[in-house]
Amino acid sequence: MRWIGLAVALILTLLPLTAEAQQPTTAPGPGIAWLVLLSMTAIAFGFSWFTAWHVGRAWVDSKVQGGAARFLIWCSAVLSACGFMWCYVVVIWVTGTYLGIFD
Question: What pLDDT, on a 0 to 100 scale, did the predictor assign at position 37?
């Protein structure tokens, strides 16, 4: 959990917080903040895909077994859905930022 907090702190430190900070002062480019955001989104998508794949493989067995196995499979399914939702929100946010919708 400590790594997640460090990654979030790094992103919040590198992302511009004011409108003046968003104006490019050098050659235009995505910057390190966008690369970190893109890499974290790719990692989250990979983990969500991996989790969803394993949930799909164990779903029927957990129905038969029931109990804690069924509960953990549901928890994993929710975890995977939250990860995919975060990836979708990042894509919508980046697209809206570049199109000027969120100004």
Answer: 85
